[in-house]
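Cross-posting from the modeling subforum.

Setting up a comparison between two proteins and wanted a second pair of eyes on the formatting. Protein 1 (sequence, then C-alpha cells):
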Amino acid sequence: MNDIELAAALADFAGRLLLDLRRSNLLEGKALGEAGDQTANAFLVRAIRHQRPDDGLLSEESADDRSRLGKSRVWIIDPLDGTREYAEGRDDWAVHVALAIDGVPSVGAVAEPARSTLWRSDTASLAALHGAPGVLVSRSRPPEVATRTCRHLDIPTKPMGSAGAKTMAVLRGEAVAYLHDGGQHEWDSAAPVAIALAAGLDATRLDGQPLVYNRPESYMPDLLVSRPEWTTRLRDALARAA
C-alpha cells in the first residue's frame, strides 16, 4: 500500500469508528467528544506505527516526544478536527491524515464522515464557484481581520467548524477562501493544505509566506487558503485591513 492509499484508508476507517461511536448514543456532549478524540487517535497511531515504523508522527492527541524532528517523513494527524461539532451532532467535522516530507505537506487525506466524503491529494479537483462569494472562518473564533478584509471586498464571512471542512468547502466551490488568524497547530492544516495545493488552490500564511511543517513548535499563527483568481484581491484587502 502506497502512502496516499494508506492515508486515505486510515482517515476513512477512523471516520467510520467516529460515526459508530456517535450513533451508539452511549455518550453525549463533552464525554462524546473526548471519547471520539481518544478512539480515533488510538487507532491511527497504532496503525501508522505498524505500517510505517520508520516514519515520524505528530498527533494532536498524543504527547510530542520530538523524535520526529530527526525524520524526513512525518505523519501529521488530527484524529477528530471539529470535536465540538462532532459532539453537537453536526456534520462539519473531519479526520485529517497527512504525510510531510522535508517540511512539505506531500500527501493528505481528509474524511468528512457525516457527509460520506473522503478527499485525497491524488484525486481532488477544484470545482467551479457557485453561489455568492464569501470567506470561510471559524465558527467559534472568527478573526477580526477576516471581517475587515471581507468588508473591503464587500463579501460576507461564512462560519463553519473544522479546518478540514472549511478547506474542502473552498474546493467544492462554496467560498473563495478560508482565512484563519489567531493560531492553530500543524495538525489542523497539514492534510487539508496537502489536498488544497494538489488541487490547485493557493495555501500560505496571511503574509504570503509558505507553510512549513514538522517544526520544533507545532504552533502555526495563521492561514489563507484561496482560489487562485482571488488570492491577489484577498491579500490586497488583508493589507488594507491590517
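Protein 2 (same layout):
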Amino acid sequence: MSLPAHLSLILDLSPVPWTALSHSTPPLSLRAFLAQALVFLNAHLALRNENSVSVFGALPGRSVGLYPPPGRGHGHGRRQAGGEEEGSGGGDENTFHVFGQADEGLMSRVEEEVAGLEEVEEDTPPALVGALTKSLCYINRLSNPPPPLNPTNAAPAPPHARIVLFSVSQDASMAYIPFMNCIFSAQKLKVPIDVCKLDDSEVIFLHQASHLTGGAFVHIDQREALLQYLSMCFLSETETRKTLAVPTQDKVDFRAACFCHKEIVDIGYVCSVCLSIFCTPVAQCSTCHTKFSPDTLLRFGGSATNGHSNGTTA
C-alpha cells in the first residue's frame, strides 16, 4: 500500500513582479493565480484521505507560513471516533470541509500579508531561502513524528514529501550560499523540489535546485493554461513520473555566485581548503583564512598584496 503524500507549496509574493504580470499579455493577477493554485491543492488532497498540504509565502525581506494555521495539525482532516472529521461544522454543506478550510484559510492569509506590505524597494528580493527553510523544517517534523501516547499504537508512517515552488522573481546572488545549503538539505531528506516559473526572469539557482533534487522545472509559456500545467506536470508523485512524459531540462546552468561580490561568475577561483569561490585570485581566503604562496597567485594572475587568496580555477 502506498504511503500518504505531503505537498508543500512556496509562493513568491513579491508585489512588483505580480503587478507586472497582471499587466502582461496574457495577464495573470495574484488572485487568479491563487484560485488555480487552490484547485491544484484540492486535487492533491482528493487523491488520498491521508494526504496533507502546507503553504509558505516568500515576501520581500521575510517569509511566513500561510497554511495550515498554528495549531491546525498537518494540513488535512483528521477523523474522530464517531466518523466525523474535526472542524466539520459550520461550513457549506455542498463543499468538502477540508477544501473549504484550505481555500478560506489560504486566501485570507495571503490577502492579509500582501495588504500589510509597506513600501518596498523594487530591488528587495523575496525571502525564498527563508520559505524553503521553513518548508524543509516542516517536512522534517512530519518525517519524524513523536512516539504515540499509547505504546500499543503503531507510529504513523511518514509521508512522501515534495516541494513545489512558484517563482516570479529573478535570482538573488546574495542568497547563493544559504540556498545551496537548502538544496543539500532537500537531497538529504530525499525531497524533490519542483519549480513552476511564471515569468521570464533568469533563475539559475532554481534550475540547479530542481535538477539536483530530482524535481521538475517548468516554464509556463501559456499562462491561461496554468491549471493544465499544474495538473499534468506537478500533481503526480515522483514514482508515478517514471511512467509519464514530464518536462525535463535540456540544459542546466551550473554557474555559481562568488563569495566576494555575490555575483554570478562564468570563471571563478576556488579555495582548495573550503571550496569558497572568488571572481579574482586573492591572497587569503575570506572564509577559512587560508594563505597561499605568492607563486600560486602569480600563476593565476593575482597579486600577493590584495588581501585574500585562492588556489584552483572553477
